[in-house]
Known about the structure:
- Chain A has helices spanning 6-35, 41-53, 56-67, 72-81, 89-114, 117-125, 130-141, 143-159, 162-168, 178-187, 191-222.
- By secondary structure, chain A is mostly helical.
- The longest helix of chain A is centred in the C-terminal third of the chain and has 32 residues, at 191-222.
- Chain B is of the alpha/beta class.
- Chain B has helices spanning 42-50, 95-102, 106-115, 131-142, 161-177, 189-195, 213-217, 259-264, and strands at residues 3-13, 16-26, 31-36, 56-61, 64-67, 81-83, 149-153, 181-185, 198-203, 206-211, 226-238, 241-248, 251-257, 270-275.
- In chain B, helix 4 (131-142) packs parallel to helix 5 (161-177).
- Chain B is globular.
- At the A-B interface, helix 6 and helix 7 of A face loops of B.
Amino acid sequence: MSIDLEPFLLSFKLAGMTTFILFIVALPVGWWLSRTKCRCKPFVEAVVSLPIVLPPSVLGFYILYALSYNSPIGAFFQEIFGVKLVFNFTGLVIASCFYSFPFMVQPLQGGFESLNKNMLEASFIAGKSTVQTLFYVALPNIKPALITALIITFAHTVGEFGVVLMVGGSIPGETKVASVAIYEMVEIMDYSQAHIYSAIMLGLSFAVLLGVYLFNLRHKKRIGLA
Amino acid sequence: MMIDVNIIKRLQGSAGEMDLNIDLCIKEHEFVAITGESGSGKTTLLRILAGLEKSEGKIEVLGKSWLDEKNILATQKRGIGFVFQDYALFENMNVLDNLLYVQKDKELAYHLLELTGLRKLEKRMPNTLSGGQKQRVSLCRAFMKRPKLLLMDEPLSALDPSMRTKLQHDILLLHKEFSTTTIMVSHDPSEIYRLASRVLVLKQGQIIQDGSPKEVLLKTQGSQKFSLTGELLDIIKVDVIHIGVVSIGQQIVEIVMDETEAEAFSIGEKVQVSTKAFSPSLSRLV
């Protein structure tokens, strides 16, 4: 029996791109949230966390509407750049970025908040800018949180289903990712394929999480904390 | 005058709102100790000097404005050294890299590590060091910019007494070698006496005493020759007399009290033990 690996490759490509984009976007947001005394902080935090509590279908519906030709955003992209944003891979990446945003921001914010404020101030006193302090002092000292943010965002994107189905549908080689493929196999009662696919997902997920926890333990030992 | 400070800042003190109101001139190469109750604004004053907190008023250092009505000079541009009570070392860097991060000057870094006896520990990570070693690294780091002004916020209060003595020696050595002007927040009178040339006492955001350590710290007044302050822990009745148990510094002493004194004092009170016609004799501890 041959296994079509394309849905897996598509899942990983989607997760990889989403993680990369979100790291760049979420880093300044997490840093800002950890340091701001602005009264608007709870408001921003609530917006950032929305994708965790919203049903994927609700999120998917709004994103689908916003990106479609019926909305100003979708119309703008189609008319100016000639890019269609729904039912293709680009649309999936955009939707995944919204869906996985809190999973990148929250660990980073938590990591930054747990840092000794005096350590950051010592860097400022040493004459270093905020950006230098972020990259040379803050990020290296939240490595476990950083790895958690990257891996969980990646894994969460691989595991997403509802939003992907709403925004991307199930076009083979374009939007048919592993989770959608499994759903379809179950629907057509191809249980043996579904078993294989599910087992691969289970194994990969476990390996990824185990890797994160092993890394965190090793990191603590390296800096002398365990 | 090296440093001219005239600042006002509203603070949430331990006893409600208060104004930190400081008008102060400090000479070059002076070693100033700031002491006073907790919540009196000592740390805030230090942080304002470092540019870590905002305030109203003026700060001028060596003819350069650090703070006035219009401008604040960023912390990064002040070129100061700062030693935190909790060391605040960069935990992702080894001892040597902690110094080199501030200034890429290996020669100076090795010189400082040599002076403080840390040369052997240059490759160690901060979390594997003892408190005293960490604070020595932090002290070295503060000198990497060859600062004109060194600020220290209770640098030794987390350390045990023997380690304190060693570090006091290092602080004085570096203060002299680099001819910095140093401002240190401290609670320890012996430390202040040993290091500082001037003491400021803060209370409720105001400087209430300003003088040499001898003038400020020696508690004897008038004809008293010997005077200690402590806390009355207990009053024990023995036959016809009473014995007061007083804790002074790290020691417990007994003082004979008569009936009226025993009734006048209550346990837990701050008391002064003093005498005039009495000559305490010193003998060496073995």
